[in-house]
Design goal:
By secondary structure, the protein is α/β, with parallel strands linked by helices. The chain has two domains: 141 residues, Rossmann fold (3-Layer(aba) Sandwich), CATH 3.40.50; 147 residues, Rossmann fold, CATH 3.40.50.1370. It contains eleven helices and nine strands. It has a five-stranded parallel sheet with strand order 7-6-5-8-9, with helices on both faces. The protein has a four-stranded parallel sheet with strand order 2-1-3-4. The radius of gyration is 19 Å and the shape is globular. The two termini are 13 Å apart.
Length: 307
Amino acid sequence: MSLLSTKHLLGINDITSDDIQLIFKTADNFKQVINRPIKKVPSLRDVTIANVFFENSTRTKISFELAEKRLSADVVNFSSGSSSVKKGETLLDTVNNILAMKVDMVVMRHPAPGAHQFLSRHIDASIINAGDGTHEHPTQALLDAFSLREKMGDLTNKNILIVGDILHSRVALSNIYCLQKLGANVRVCGPPTLLPKHIASLGIAVSHNLEESLEWCDAANMLRIQLERQEDKYFPSLREYSLQYGVTLPMLQRLNKKIILMHPGPINRGVEITSEVADSDQSIILDQVENGVAVRMAVLYLLAAQK
C-alpha cells in the first residue's frame, strides 16, 4: 500500500500533489463503502481518536466523528467549553492528558494559527488540523477539490473562483494551495476590504467584479461572511454586500455556460447565495457534505497506516 509523505495533516502546504491523489483514490473506495447497506469497515478497530475542539463546530465535528465510526475506531470527544481549559490549563497539558489515555490520533480545531504545528513538535500522536484560526482547514479543501474532480474530472487548467470573505477564511487559503497543486487556475473575488493585502503574491488572479468572474470560471466556491471574526466593519451592510457579491438565479442564467456552485457551509441564505441557487441543479453543496465523510475516512486511514 502507498503511504502519505507525512505523519500529520497540518495543512495543504505540508503535503504533496501525490499525497492529494492518494487521498482521493482512497476516498473513492470509501465512498463506495458508505453507500453500501452496511456502512462500516473494521480498518481502524484498534485505533483511538480524540476529537479536540477549542472552537465551535457542527459540520466538521460530525463529519469526522462519522468517518471515525465508519472505520470502527474508538472515539473520544473533547470540547473546551466544559473542560479544564477554562481553569487555565495549557494546550500542551490538555493534549498530554488526553494522550495519557493512550490516544493514537488527535483531530483538533483551535483558534490560534499554528497551534497544530506547535503540538506536532511536542507529542507523538498523529495530528489532523480541523481548522486553525484564519490559517488553514485542509480536509475542507480536500473534500472541495474531490467534489470538483467528481463533476469535472482532472482539474488541470480548470478555472476555479473563490468568492467572499477571503481575509477571515481558513477554507480559502487551503483551497488555493490545493487547487494549485492540482493544476487549476484560481481567482479570488470580493470587496477590497475582505481580500488580504498580498493575496496576489500566491500566484492567483484577484477581481472585484463578480459577474465578470463568474463568466470566467468553471466552478465558484462561495464563502460566507464571517461576522464572528470581524471586529471592524468591512462593508456598509449585509444587503449592500449581497447586492454586489451575492449569486442569484438570474445572474447564473445570464452566463454563457453552466457553472458549478459550491459552499463550505454554513450558508447565509440570501447573502452569499439565494435559496434558489443553493437548491439548484448547479449546486453541489450536499455532495460536498457526503464527500466530506469519505475524504476524512481516507485521511484517517492513511495516517493510521503510518504507525
